């Protein structure tokens, strides 16, 4: 996932560079366009980062819940085994 984002950003940068070279504009307009495009690209990258962070947090929570469930099941199994052992020993 991280590699895809890196490729996307590199491609966006190359595309912006080619577009700038091909567009006949004055220096002032070109600088404004570069600035605007840079801000948009940075905002898209931030949004992607927020989405990835949210996904990671969700996955971490699911993982913690799964671990807690497995821990409870293991504890119950151990307790059942102890109980069964005690019954056999008493018999």
Explain this structure to me?
- By secondary structure, the chain is mostly helical.
- It has one domain.
- It is 93% helix and 0% strand.
- It is built from 2 helices and no strands.
- It has helices at residues 2-22, 27-90.
- The longest helix has 64 residues, at 27-90.
- The mean pLDDT is 85.
Brief overview:
The chain is an all-alpha fold and 91 residues long. The protein has one domain.
Write the layout of secondary structure elements.
Elements: H1 2-22, H2 27-90
Helix pairs in contact: 1-2
Number of helices: 2
Total strands: the figure is 0
For the sheet with most strands, the description reads: none
Poorly predicted ranges (pLDDT <50, ≥5 residues)?
A: none
Count up the domains: 1
- For this structure, the quaternary state is single chain
Distance between the termini: 59 Å
Q: How much is the average pLDDT?
A: 85
Radius of gyration, in Å, reads 28 Å
Which structural class should the secondary elements be placed in? mainly alpha
Shape: rod-shaped
- The helical percent reads over 70%
β-strand amount: under 5%
Series of secondary-structure elements, N-terminal to C-terminal = HH
């Amino acid at each position: 996932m991280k590699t895809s984002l890196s490729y996307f950003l590199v491609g966006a940068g190359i595309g912006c560079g080619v577009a700038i070279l091909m567009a006949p504009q004055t220096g002032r307009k070109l600088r404004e366009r570069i600035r605007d495009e840079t801000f948009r690209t940075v905002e898209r990258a931030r949004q992607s980062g927020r989405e990835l962070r949210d996904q990671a947090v969700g996955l971490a929570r699911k993982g913690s819940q799964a671990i807690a469930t497995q821990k409870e099941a293991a504890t119950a199994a151990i307790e059942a085994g102890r109980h069964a052992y005690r019954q056999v020993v008493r018999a």
